[in-house]
Amino acid sequence: MSEKNNPIITMKISRAVQENPSVKTIYFNCQLKAKPGQFVMLWVPGVGEKPMSISYCDGESFGVSVAAVGGFSAAVMRLKAGDLAGFRGPFGTSFSFRKEKTLALVSGGCGCAPLAFLADEALKAKKKVLFMQGARTKGLLFFTERMKNAGAEVLISTDDGSAGSKGFVTDLLGPALQDGKVGKIFACGPEIMMKKVVDISDEFKIPCEISLERYMKCGIGVCGQCVVDPLGIRMCTEGPVIKKETAKKITEFGKYRRDASGRRVPI
Amino acid sequence: MLQTELAGVKLSNPTILASGIMGVSGASLSLIAKNGAGAVTSKSISLEPRMGHPNPVIVTYGQGMMNAVGLSNAGVKDSIPELEYAVKNAGVPVIASIVEFKADNFGILAKEISKASPALIELNISCPNVSHEFGKPFSHDPAAAEWATRSAKRNTKIPVFVKLSPNTPDLVEVARAVKSAGADGITAINTIGPGMQIDIHARKPVLSNKCGGISGPAIKPIAVRCIYELYRETKLPIIGTGGVATGADAVELIMAGASAVAIGSGIYYRGLDIFSKVCREMQEFMEKEGFSSIREMRGVAHE
Known about the structure:
The complex is a heterodimer.
Chain A lengths: L8 E4 L2 E6 L2 E6 L10 E6 L3 E10 L4 E6 L3 H7 L6 E8 L10 E7 L3 H13 L3 E8 L8 H7 L2 E6 L6 E2 L3 H8 L4 E7 L2 H13 L4 E4 L29 E3 H6 L6 E3 L5 E3 L1
Parallel strand pairs in A: 8-9, 8-12, 9-10, 10-11, 12-13
Antiparallel strand pairs in A: 1-7, 2-3, 3-6, 4-5, 4-7, 5-6, 13-14, 15-16
Chain B lengths: L3 E3 L2 E3 L3 E3 L8 H9 L4 E3 L16 E4 L2 E4 L7 H15 L4 E5 L6 H9 L6 E5 L6 H4 L7 H12 L6 E5 L6 H10 L4 E4 L3 E5 L1 E2 L4 E2 L5 E5 L4 H15 L3 E4 L5 H10 L3 E4 L2 H5 L3 H16 L4 H4 L6
Parallel strand pairs in B: 3-4, 3-16, 4-7, 7-8, 8-9, 9-10, 10-15, 15-16
Antiparallel strand pairs in B: 1-2, 5-6, 6-14, 11-14, 12-13
Helix pairs in contact in B: 1-2, 3-5, 5-6, 6-7, 7-8, 8-10
């Protein structure tokens, strides 16, 4: 029992790729047994540690994609191949598919990170993948080429119309479901977007899973910082991937979250 | 068979959620109660909100874990509705853990937190992770511990337990001091150390606070010794805590003198339902060994 241990593994970054001006993917040559939707706690020594969805994992190496939002991610932006970083994990629940032939993956902003890993796995399992990407503007899109090359059908929307259709990514979903071929929907992105995806999946009566992020500290299910109301479940352990049935029971979904102190802050 | 009592508060079983673990919201405290805990303790609440230390705040190692969360909490104003939710929904006694850094403030805080009607108030005077901010904990100084306890006791009618630190040679003296100040019971022990883990590749301490309190299976023998001494020297009700992961561990703390047993890190090793697992294992042991109550088993190691 007490042998359970999730130590930080520190190693040199094997590759660092600037995906766009604000997103960087860093890769480690490490055989991580991760499933799509799971995350690692990424440690930049002397800077900090944050949960990051795994955006790539092929059994030989894995990567996480980090968007520039604050001090920690600014430090990640400066990392290059050969620099040291650490990680704990993988942690959390994962996306699941079984017999469905066609899957719709709906992402907003950086939400395409875990969904790209999911798409790779689904394509390996001979599924048809509709990869829907939404972003504010063309320059913020990433993984589009990677998904096309992997064999996914990529549909794009941008708020300003600079790439794909103008509007929200959720506008692409309804029409894609009309022919009745999509067997399951997966979503990761802003909560307001995921809420809309859940509503659409209800309308079409299609199973759906989303990835819900909350402020995480320990990552291993003890500190309780990432619990959600009114279920009290931990998004690091019972999440981040949850079924839509669970999402609908989470009254704070799309409304508020807790900060580092535990106070509720509106979304 | 598993019923126990702490200063007049009845528990259906002796397992308690320890403070600092899964105690951020009323909903999570209620979820722990559903998983079999006989009582639940909130994360330590201070007058003002605290963000705590930056990540990393927890590291695990072979025999336990180290944490320096830094007493993050929403502050008393935002914590009262969470406690009220737990009092209403958990269905088990709720223990409000409070922390302050001036002894007099324990009185102000005890008064405020009593508005949520917790069954017990636990004074955290022994966190090892905030010495940069506040100097050595009150639990290292009998006079300071006594003052904090008296301040709390004067401002509430709810029974007060005081959580003590093993990291002082004066443990028993501190316990006597809080008893003389009117403490209704003792919680022992807080985390050990603090300890430190250095990542040898990064050549740096892993925790942002550099040091962190050690918990988990490694510290159980220290908890047992402390509880044994506290039972012998004070006869106060004791919530025993430190490295409990199994029913056998819980029995050991009770035989040393605990009336109830708090579990924290054990959640990492056995999941949220560790409370019902430990209860089942305790019951099996008691049936086999012919114990019919917790009271009968308490302190038997002293006989």
